[in-house]
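Question thread 4412

I'm putting together a teaching handout and wanted feedback from people who do this every day. The idea is simple: show students a protein as raw sequence, then show them the structure tokens that encode its fold, then repeat with a second protein so they can compare. Below is the first pair exactly as I plan to print it.
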Amino acid sequence: MHFNGQSSVALNGDLATGIAYCMAHHLTIEDGRQKFMVATIRYHDKFVKLNGQCFFSGRKLCW
């Protein structure tokens, strides 16, 4: 499960860049035992506007 927090976007014509903060909760099973891990992460995103619609054009994961 991911919880997305504050985000910011900078527009530049048909292009944009953004930063999004997230807390990711992961539940896995290793050797028959449940493991729970929480990660705080930051995404550096790129967007492009095509035919009036915005799309992701790139995403970099930063720990």
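The second pair follows. I'd like the answer to focus on this one:
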Amino acid sequence: MANSLTPMMQQYVEYKDEHPDELLFYRIGDFFEMFFDDARTASRELGLTLTGRDGGLDDRIPMCGVPYHAVDGYIAKLIKKGYRVAVCDQVEDPKLAKGLVKRAIVKIVTPGTALNESLLEDSRNRFLVHLEEDDGVLCLALADVSTGECRWFTANGSERLLALEEQLFRLQPSEIIYKAGIPEWGDLEDWLKNKLPGCACASYELPAAAPDFVKQHFGDIALDPLVRETVQGLLAYLHATVMADLSQINRLERISAEQYMNLDATAIRNLELIRNMRDGGKKGTLLDVLDFTSTSMGSRCLRNWIECPILDIVKIRERQDAVEELAGNPELRDAIQEHLKEVFDLERILSRLEVGSANARDLVSLRASLNALPPLKERLQEARAGLLQKLSASIQLHQKIRDTLAAAIVDDPPFTIREGGMIRDGYDLELDELHNIARNNSAWMAGFEQKTKASTGIKNLKVGYNKVFGYYIEVSKGQTSQVPPEFVRKQTLVNAERYIVPELKDFENKILSAKEKIESLEYYIFNQIRKEIREEIPEIQDTARALAWLDVLASLATAACKYDYHRPELNIRGEIRILDGRHPVVERLLDKEIFVPNNVTMNGTDERMVILTGPNMAGKSTYMRQVALLVLMTQMGSFIPA
């Protein structure tokens, strides 16, 4: 079949053969087209009209397509339905191409690597997980390419699958890849799909000749061989799909059982920490009660604090000190939250800049976010809590980038970065000169029109422009006899004729050339600014993390003030003593009723057990969950309703 296909269709088939498991989006002009079975699938799943194209075969080749400027939305729909998509774009200007336009696979979009806005939730991560096992030790590595987070976890012994289930339930990954043929796992994919319905799962073989991505991203870091292999496989998969440097992934953290409370999947589910048991939504959860965050980064961080309460008593008290100060200083807390409301999702903006999917509007959001930092940092100077002072020190002002963005990017840039309109006047001398040529065309046309009227004696002659025919001289049918011989007919209308002359044609070429140069130069300047920002990605990420923590602390302080929470005292005696405790979620769901406070005393010696009795629906399970939630809130550094 391939020999009979047209050259373009041969090129398509070559790329499709390389990506049999993905739907191939193939760029032709202003559209991304799909052919053969991919076209049938896409037309069915996306509601597109299935047409045909002559491609050298006896029958027309099935085809459907979407506009290039709307492709992300269509890809997102396919990802939500469980498909993978390979994007084959034009990598040279079709106007300059000699023969077939050069194309290349520029990215492979999968559930765990997607950066489409419509697939990302502000308040939660979109994790990709890679699993490996060796000699009874199981290793999990995860990354969120949209935020730059990367972590690893190991478990061994007979309980390793249970430990894996707990981590996966907490992480709720969008995609899991694993090494094919791992012994003792049985049918892992079926097991994963049963535990995490809706999560994409597939085996993956690490490329033999892959670069040392661990060293490239994290330097000379000391890792156990299994951990290194697992992280290397994760990064190799990301590079093979996203096809970018991914410099936003520059910090590797360990998920340690010694650092966090051990919350199994049953506890997370039954305590309704993040998702309720009714419909899986946020309403009626601890997250819903505590979430007064002002930023997407803070919302994700709060979610992590709730799911991973810490064990270090010094760090817990450090958080409590910060919450106490913010709760006791409403002016400072309000000022912090007002400034944070001006901060956009820095983590995801940086990731889009790194992978090349950002536009000038992202730079405007980055500029607004960085401009909020100086007054925020100034207000933090009055903070006395140690953690607040540490966070203030971590917030850098990034003056150089702020100055560049203020001078370079207009306030309301277009969505596209290829058609100009992004760069301020005065930023680049060459660009200003080109703009002067393009903007002065109206004055030139008016002068040319008056001059032509005088030289021809045609009083109602008009000089105009449209996108199809370019510049023209329009003469009504009744005066065409007065047209001089140098006028060349360009278009015939019902009541007029349109002409072109060499002087007008030269002006048209000059204007069109200026516009093309403007678009090219603005795109170049945009990429130079992007390069400047990329050099400071680690520093901006440190600032973003500090802002997220600050946002969570302010949120917990707001909840404490709003709901009359108090600071719990910590002890290492294994004692729980709660006076006038209240269930943090149930009391918020009550309309006109008042939650009746209750007490509990337990310790590690003579009061290790409490026996609850009472009729059905008397509140026994609510009482038990209340105790668990108050302990968990204490461990995360929050004040509690008691």
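Top answer:
Good format. For the second protein you could add a caption like this: The mean pLDDT is 91. The chain has five domains: 2-109, 121-254, 265-396+536-563, 399-535, 576-635.
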